[in-house]
Amino acid sequence: MTEKVTDEMLMAFVDGETDAATAAMIARALAADAGLAARAEKFRASRRLLREAFSDARREPVPEALVEAVAHADRRGEVVAFPSRRMLRLALPLAASLAVGFGLAGYLLGQAGTDATDPLGRAAIAEALAGTKAGESRPVTISGEEARLRTLATYRIEGGLCRSFDLSGAHIALSGIGCDRGAGWNLDLTVAGAGGDGLYAPASEAALSSIDAYLDTLEASPPLTAEEEDALAD
Amino acid sequence: MSELGYRIVTLLPRLRGFARALARSQDAADDLVQATCEKALRHGESWTPGTRLDSWLFRIMRNHWIDTVRRCRPETPLDGAEADALPSEDGRRTVEARLALADVRAIADALPDEQRMVLMLVCVEEMSYREAADLLDVPIGTVMSRLARARAALVAAMDGEARSRTSGDRT
After folding, report:
1. Are residues A186 and A83 in the same domain?
2. Considering CB atoms only, which of A6, A50, A67 is closest to B9?
3. Is the ipTM of this complex over 0.85?
4. How many residue pairs from chains A and B have C-beta atoms closer than 8 A?
């Protein structure tokens, strides 16, 4: 006895998703009905056609910007709750690269003076910030450890400039803001990150908002475009 | 880069393929891929090593798509009303038995999101019905009915037939 063979049964048959008894029943039905066999063949073909039709995107090289955005999110442990991040996206031309990823709530407000040993590398960071435009990065040595500083955005403030940055190394992760008010670059604010590569930091709204709030306090401009920043150097 | 980050990067071509099918344009797809990866890295601890990373990422992408992107679009018909969304009769009649790949894409793009997701997971990603059902949180029977309806649209195009396929057809 054969029961009626539905599209679902035909499809499962050509996909190899039927049990042995059902498969045998369908095979008998196909042998007895050329129309049904032709329909089964079309279901089989539909799978191949779809695979071919949707393979283009899989074969194309992945855009560099996408890889970079993922790598950056990985480094930062990425972080920010969605509304905040959308606002940042609007505000920052660096968009994808500004994933302000602060981990721990315990952060260090850098306005206080440093001790002579400069354990946080404040001087080294400030010096690096001076020569690093938005989107650029350079190595920095902090307490003997190699890290990489990357400037996320440059802002105009009254009487000078500020740069937001992040800094990451094997055991260090910082973000912050440094400014130059005409007397050289100074590290104004740092926020401790999760502590190095490979850690995924939970979001800390407090850490993020401290940076936002600081920029607000300074009445910072929107981030400068690359052209505006280049013009400053002239 | 972390091991998870590295593995995600190696999956980017497949994530772009799935995203292209969801978003129907490559630009929107890449935004979707980026949001998915960021979300995944933010919640890296919720992935269990040893389980399929690709399924986990597809699930994040699908949820993100439903939560955010799709909300901005006009309502898509759900199961039951899906037949209305198949290509028009005229459109189907003009398609030859040997379908051009562009036609295949156009037909798939015209399908409801739920059907297109199943098509991608099974026909392109070569997941089993069970794997697709688990990923989509639906019964396996739902996967089969969506998949059969979606592929029936292609079969109809191959036939060049103008047969009406309403849900009442399926007996």
Report:
1. yes
2. A67
3. no
4. 141
